Amino acid sequence: MLGRISPLLTIAGSILLFAPPFHAAKPVPLPLPVQGSCTSAETGKSCSATFFLQPYKGVKMSVAGTAVKPRFSRTDKTQALAQVTITNVPADASELLLTVENGLTGARREVRVSLVDNPATSVTPLIVIDAPAAQHRFVHRIATGKQPKSAMFISPTRVILPLLDDNHIEVVDVLTREVSRLTVPPQYAKRGGFVESVVVPPRGEVWVSQMAASAIHRYALDTLEYRGSIDLSGSWTKVLAFNPVENTVYASNWNSSDISVVSVESLKELRKIKLGGVPRGMAFSTDGTTMLAAIFGGKNDSDGAGRTAMVDLEKQKITKTIIAGGSHRHAVRLKSGENYFAVSDMARNKVYFINEYAKTAEVKVYSNPNTIAESPDGKFLYVSCRGHNNPKSYLLKGPDFGRLMVIDIATLKVIEDLEAGNQPTGLDVSPDGKYVVLTDFLDHAMRVYERVQ
């Protein structure tokens, strides 16, 4: 029994229950919303809510200062399904404010429970208790299709998600959570295997790679209308990169160990560049004449004989190996230098920093770093780390959750380490730098974080 609940505040005709104020150095984030249902009782009503909670161990819950004991089930490492029942709720209350506090760290989060007659049951929300000094706060988790492989903003709030184990591509609004479905012709849809995307400004399009078909699919940026497909002669097409100087798109072909060069004007494959290894990420010099290629493996994708190489695009060949060994996955050109790059290495759990085609620094990160993305202001480099693989297959959940790590580019120090879900993979930052999105590959979901500093 809760006893008498107070104080009460009426807002727009609803009654909101408040817990004691939380004083922190930073603004308190808005309460995360969940839905709850109620049954009538002799004294007020009994209300319950269900949500996933991360972390859940050592957690205390209360409403208006009165303790509430949750029941946990469906545990997955640090996450569990929480079921909360609150008794003696006033008959006319339409909302409750639930305080969730981590007794181990002192971190806390408010949960706004809307009391509705028929709560939605299709998607159970996730509540994440942010660290007290978090510079990036969890907003919500959005369910997606199967195995979201990458994520890329195509507008201030819309993110395109190629799905590796599904027959379509999705576009998700990070604020409204609205999901749009992008289809491909049936001969492509039945094969699945969508991997990555790139915006092609001269055509006002976004292009998406399909590994299983070695193809690129084109969509209008504004209307998301399907505009056609480009078949490539390589095998297992993955990363796409736009070279604005040449007006070309480069597509790395995993199995054929080469990179296709596609004309944006003619929509034809012009040539292929052989790399003598398994290619993945690509980034271009400021003048567009040189490519930095992240090569994942040598003879195969598991031999650890990858490298980061400098490719002369006129000669169409590697002219220098910058870093040898490892499994180099993703490459970006950074804003704070003419030809300043970052590359992730999944085998060595590192991010390399390369200036004028020479390694200048490396930063140790969590297990299996894959995608990296720079904030628009050039302050942070975000790294999605998958975590340790399941020894039987990476397609099975591993022993721990992956991480979203934040590197301060000026100091090259990891300043934030956020636990995510099962195999964080896709990653991007909104054009204004306010939101960071991260796909949990095996949870079939995308997490949205808000930058607060």
How far do the termini sit from each other?
Answer: 41 Å
Percent in strands = over 45%
Q: Which structural class matches the secondary elements?
A: mainly beta
Number of domains: 2
Top-tier CATH class of the largest domain: Mainly Beta
The CATH homologous superfamily name of the largest domain equals YVTN repeat-like/Quinoprotein amine dehydrogenase
Describe the protein in words.
The structure is a single chain. The strands form 9 sheets. Strands 3, 4, 5, 6, 7, 8, 9, 10 and 11 form a 9-stranded mixed β-sheet that branches. A 4-stranded antiparallel β-sheet has the order 12-39-38-37, with no helix packed on it. A 4-stranded antiparallel β-sheet has the order 13-14-15-16, with no helix packed on it. The chain has 2 domains: 8-133, Sandwich (Immunoglobulin-like), CATH 2.60.40.3070; 144-201 and 280-451, Methylamine Dehydrogenase, Chain H (7 Propeller). The chain is an all-beta fold and 453 residues long. The model is unreliable at 1-25 (pLDDT under 50). A hairpin with a 5-residue loop joins β15 and β16. Helix content is 1%, strand content 54%. The protein starts with 7 loop residues before the first strand and ends with a strand. The protein has one helix spanning 186-189; strands at residues 8-11, 14-17, 32-40, 45-54, 59-63, 66-68, 71-76, 79-89, 95-102, 108-115, 126-128, 136-143, 152-153, 158-162, 169-173, 179-182, 194-200, 205-210, 215-220, 226-231, 237-243, 248-253, 258-263, 269-274, 278-284, 290-297, 307-312, 317-324, 328-333, 340-345, 350-355, 358-364, 369-374, 380-385, 403-408, 413-419, 424-429, 435-440, 445-451.
